[in-house]
Design brief:
With about 100 residues, the chain is an all-alpha fold. It contains five helices and no strands. The chain has two domains: about 50 residues, no CATH class; about 55 residues, no CATH class.
């Protein structure tokens, strides 16, 4: 089984994904007594490094806001809600947000 996974899974992440899917299939078949054992069970996962997300420092955030121009209100919503761009554009109702400048 590990030979199949080595050949058809070029990356560690894909190897682990294929391993889980095949392991689930054999576990299902084993519970129904269609196979004697699960051949994927002894195959270990490969290590996968999760990339770190880049977080802008306050100075960079200020520079982005100054350069945003007409998109500044959108950036302010992203900064203050910590929402993703798809959440802001497709899920939020903009009637909740006030984009007017407050007078001091």
């Amino acid at each position: 089984m590990s030979h199949y996974l080595d050949i058809y899974s070029p990356t560690n992440k894909l190897f682990n994904k294929e391993r889980i899917e095949i392991k689930c299939l054999f576990s299902w078949a084993h519970r129904r007594l269609l196979v004697a054992t699960n051949p994927v069970h002894p195959v270990d996962k490969f290590a996968v490094e999760t990339p770190k997300k880049a977080m802008p420092i306050p100075k960079q955030m200020a520079e982005m806001l100054m350069a945003a121009g007409p998109n500044r209100p959108l950036l302010l919503v992203l900064f203050h809600t910590l929402a993703g761009i798809d959440e802001v554009l497709y899920r939020f109702r903009f009637s909740v947000f006030s984009f007017r400048l407050k007078n001091p």
